[in-house]
Amino acid sequence: MTVSNATLPREHVARARTAVFVVFTASGVAFASWASRIADVKATLGLSAGQLGMVLLAMSAGSLVALPSTGRIAAKFGVVPTIRVGMLLSLLGFATVGLGVDLAQSSAVVAAGLFLVGTGIGVWDVTMNLEGAVVERMLGQTVMPQFHAAFSGGTVASALVGSGMSWAGIPLLPHLLLSALTVTALGFWALRSFLPRELEFSDAKEPVNERAATGGLPTTDRSPARSAWLEPRTLRIGLVVLVAAFTEGTANDWLAVAFVEGHELPAWAGVLGFATFLSFMTLGRLLGTRWLDTYGRVPVLRATFALAVVGSVLVIFGTPWMAFIGAAIWGVGVSLGFPVGMSASADDPQRAGARMSVVATIGYLAFIAGPPALGFLGDHVGVLRSLLAVGTMALLVQVILESVREPARTDPTTAQAEPARGAS
């Protein structure tokens, strides 16, 4: 029997929302388990900044391989089986990374493991965002930043654990393996409460929250025959996500190293700087849903990207204490770019899978170019000064932020007289 969102009980949608929170959180825990130990890996393997950048490139390459086809795979086999495959690939990759650092002490083995991690997390990332976009449309309110806040919350908790592991000198293999097994088990449990497959790529025309009614995308964006790679709006959204991914990913990969090498702090303090960034990124995503519903996507992103500039400048040129403040401001500044881009790419539910794959692929190019580029700059001007690239990118993106503008909202008085329409 075909299930429609008009007949799906509200409780089922609420359970699906909770399940999406859990899956996002698990993804954040998995990612930060690795990111929190990057400085330890650099020291253990004796890597230069440029060499570390090339190792980090393997993870980005794995994601880039997976992203273009993930939307089609999820449409064919379903969201739940696709996420499960991503989780299992990540588990295998983390085990390989731990073996490469603790036993083989080989950057090549670590890179191979990171390629698997990147592939798994790339599949996992796009598919959970697809599910989140469907839940958001059915609820009729902005919730995507909250899902990404769950991811950030997972990274905060995991980074704090990683800081303790680093301080105690715990090897990477037991740390990464325990983390991966835990999040995989948690994720498999949560996936049981995802929406029925019939709703995954359907046009949700009646939100559960009947007060919200949105629509009005240009007709040129609703052509099912046109490749998403040929749509100017989709490509511009992808560039916004690319900058958001670069400003966020740079902190993920290099902030702890910058605190250690640029401000001459111990490794555990560098991880705390990274945790500060993650904590305030989480806070920005939690508060951001109200900001977005009140002021709209474009004004909010203009303000937050400007904060990213200010925060990165404080990290680079401030004292160690000012750098911690800068990490907090930077975290708020990058908090909303990625989730808003994901929501914007899924404004038309019938084209959500194809467009989100394109946007995610473009966004993840930042993870391809970012690590080696920052590593190259770090070898010549120092890791700390190389972070100036963040402020530059955050300023340039202001030119194309109009591309993420939400569909026109229906007047509330009209919405009461007419049937509500789902976000398109």
Residue ranges: pLDDT <50 for 5 or more in a row? 1-5, 203-224, 410-424
What is the third-level CATH name, the topology? Growth Hormone, Chain: A
Largest sheet: none
Query: Distance N terminus to C terminus?
Result: 25 Å
Shape designation: globular
Q: Classify the helix fraction into a percent range.
A: over 70%
From the helix content, strand content and strand pairing, which structural class follows?
A: mainly alpha
Number of strands: 0
Number of domains: 1
Tell me what the CATH architecture is: Up-down Bundle
Supply Rg.
21 Å
How many distinct helices? Answer: 16
The CATH fourth-level homologous superfamily: MFS general substrate transporter like domains
Order of helices and strands: HHHHHHHHHHHHHHHH
CATH class, named Mainly Alpha
Amount of beta strand = under 5%
Mean pLDDT: 83
